[in-house]
Write a structure and sequence with these properties.
Largest sheet: 6 strands, parallel
Structural class: alpha/beta
Radius of gyration: 21 Å
Order of helices and strands: HHHEHEHEHEEHEHEHEHEEHEE
Helix content: 40-55%
Shape: globular
Strand content: 15-25%
């Protein structure tokens, strides 16, 4: 039997209006929100997106534009969005900008030409500046990246707070010289960098935050330069999973191991990370919730075009593993085992 919003409300012991507010990303008491989301999971409820399709001038297609499809974070979020769209009879046009503002503008124009129902976008840094001055013909939800005052609904991670948690985690394990590598082409990188810098200053650490340009080889170049210094860092923080992999490859090429020669922590919990030595310590992002919330916000925006702009800020989860332990001898600390052939 089909599960409806009334069933969720009954299980959560709240009104249907409260369920709608939670699913739409509106401001709701945290305990109430947790109760409703628990009821959604227990009942298996899925929003009837097909019933909310756009008016006749649009199609039943949504656009999904991500910044770097090679980044497993965007791959996971894209899958969550596509799955929910498929379950409800909606099609998805997926585009990858590769952090290129010109490609982003081209794809946004494509979405207008295709008369999509709406767009879910992870914007470039330059794209955010453009969005602040323009308004597309379709509703748009921003994921992962936003700036204060942006006139679009968005769902993001509490980036500064999560970066602070990583610094505090390394500090608690005795590391005092910490370098952070943060993407230079996104607001996410800027927010994580700000959280890193504030926490390093508060704890009195010798920390350095480095803005990394988007492109192959940039992480390797920066890490190599850091390691050549007489006061090289004791620990590194990577702003995403792609950077973590690049750091590991660079260290491996220099004959260094984690954590014996260098501690490492970062963002994104990818499948390979617990196979590396004692595993990588990371902030795990709630990718399923990001995708689900973005879709719910898009559908809610279709129903309430004139509603106030909303911003949903989610928390990540620290997963502590061996890569952040100080110099612990670990016979399996080589980066890639010979059995995997990687």
């Amino acid at each position: 039997m089909t599960v409806g919003i009334k069933d969720v409300a009954r299980v959560a012991n709240v009104s249907t209006a409260t369920v709608s507010r939670v699913l739409g990303g509106r401001n709701v008491d945290e305990a109430m929100r947790d109760r409703v989301l628990a009821a959604v999971r227990s009942t298996g409820y899925r929003p009837n997106l097909a019933a909310r399709r756009l008016r006749s001038r649009h199609t039943n297609t949504i656009g999904l534009i991500v910044a770097d499809i090679r980044n497993p974070f965007f791959t996971a979020v894209s899958r969550a969005i596509e799955n929910l769209a498929y379950e409800n009879g909606l099609r998805v046009i997926l585009c990858n900008t590769d952090e290129d503002a010109a490609r982003e503008a081209m794809y946004l124009q494509l979405m207008q030409e295709e008369r999509v129902t709406g767009v879910i976008l992870a914007p470039t840094r330059q794209g955010l500046a453009t969005l602040a001055k323009t308004k597309p013909d379709y509703p748009m939800i921003l994921i992962d990246r936003a700036t204060p005052g942006i006139a679009h609904d968005c769902v993001v991670l509490d980036n500064a707070a999560m970066a602070a948690i990583l610094v505090e985690h390394l500090h608690a394990r005795g590391f005092r010289r910490i370098a952070g590598l943060f993407g230079a082409s996104s607001s996410t990188g800027e927010e994580r960098r700000a959280g890193f810098e504030a926490t390093v200053q508060r704890l009195g650490l010798a920390g350095e935050a480095i803005a990394v340009p988007h492109g192959d080889g940039e992480v390797a170049r920066i890490v190599t330069d850091l390691l050549a210094r007489p006061d090289r860092p004791e620990a590194l923080i990577a702003s995403n999973g792609v950077a973590s992999m690049a750091i590991l490859r660079t260290l491996h090429g220099l004959g260094l191991s984690v954590p014996n020669d260098m501690a490492l922590a970062g963002f994104d919990n990818e499948g390979w990370m617990d196979l590396v030595g004692g595993g990588l310590s990371v902030i795990e992002q709630p990718v399923e919730e990001i995708g689900r919330t973005a879709m719910a916000m898009l559908m809610d925006r279709l129903d309430h075009a004139d509603a106030a702009v909303r911003k949903v800020v989610l928390a990540g989860r620290l997963v502590a593993r061996g890569s952040s332990e100080p110099g612990s001898p670990n016979p399996t600390s080589s980066f890639f085992s010979t059995e995997t052939g990687a």
